[in-house]
Amino acid sequence: MCTSILYTAGDHYFGRNLDLEVSFGQEVVVTPRDYPFDFRQMPTLDHHYAIIGMALVKDNYPLYFDGANEEGLGMAGLNFAGLAHFFPVVDGKDNVSPFEFIPYVLGQCKNVAEAKQLLVNLNLVNINFSDQLQLSPLHWLIADRQGAAIVVESTPSGLHVYDNPVGVLTNNPEFPSQMTNLANYQSVSPANPVNTLMPKKELMTYSRGLGSHMLPGGMDSESRFVKECFTLHNAPEGDSELENVTNYFHCLHAVEQQKGLDEVAPATFEYTIYSDGINLATGTFYYTTYEDNQINAVQMHNVNLNSRELAQFPLVKGQSIHAQN
């Protein structure tokens, strides 16, 4: 399970929590403009926008979990088990495998409007990376530095592209159902509630934060969607990059999963392996991991973006504690 957001505060910050029970050895990877993307059914992309993001590099191919390009377009793939459906190759369509989807879009599009045009003839096809690496059931959040966002879902009924006015995506159910469910929580507020139960009677307010009393707090994807919408859309705007990055990670960490709380198999628990975010205007990629709360940063433009070789940055491991005495 996962959560992805677009946070607007001065610049736009895009990224996600990756929630799984096992890590894949992912790292921060910069794909420069002249690295050739060989697609299974589409022409090779020899020259494209540079991309930075979290990826597993297999056979020198970056399998991106999420990322953004140098023009400020971001994209993340999130689990969509039981609902995702990928199709056979169809003549006359742009046949792209889901493992190629992120570089296919980020390599060619500057913003959400261009991505929408690219998706018009798209067919997400059932082609695995290899026998050892099967396709994951995914749907995707795509967002840009102008604040636009869309959700892409491929289901048995076809490819669906939805405008996303809230800038949040989790997992099941399908995105329109997530948006409909938000209406059940319209009264949730950061402020203490007004007594509409018995307006003529004075009721004791026994706690701060009663306006959020009905806010769901489970690890399930529907609860996380609601809670993250509430957190994100009430988050403050900072006056500096440091403040905004701090606020951004607090938004993601509001729905992080701790070990021991989401059992997916006997004695096996899903947890937030990493949280990341990129400033879509500057190309700075930030991340934390479950083992390290320190915010680490990789700047895309400090890499030679005209190279043909991937730049790889292993994740910092181990907690960082500042001793004051």
Automatic annotation (TrEMBL):
<keyword id="KW-0443">Lipid metabolism</keyword>
<dbReference type="InterPro" id="IPR052193">
    <property type="entry name" value="Peptidase_C59"/>
</dbReference>
<dbReference type="Pfam" id="PF02275">
    <property type="entry name" value="CBAH"/>
</dbReference>
<feature type="domain" description="Choloylglycine hydrolase/NAAA C-terminal">
    <location>
        <begin position="2"/>
        <end position="311"/>
    </location>
</feature>
<comment type="pathway">
    <text>Lipid metabolism; bile acid biosynthesis.</text>
</comment>
<comment type="similarity">
    <text>Belongs to the peptidase C59 family.</text>
</comment>
<dbReference type="GO" id="GO:0045302">
    <property type="term" value="F:choloylglycine hydrolase activity"/>
</dbReference>
<dbReference type="InterPro" id="IPR047711">
    <property type="entry name" value="CBAH"/>
</dbReference>
<dbReference type="InterPro" id="IPR029055">
    <property type="entry name" value="Ntn_hydrolases_N"/>
</dbReference>
<keyword id="KW-0378">Hydrolase</keyword>
<dbReference type="InterPro" id="IPR029132">
    <property type="entry name" value="CBAH/NAAA_C"/>
</dbReference>
<protein>
    <recommendedName>
        <fullName>choloylglycine hydrolase</fullName>
        <ecNumber>3.5.1.24</ecNumber>
    </recommendedName>
</protein>
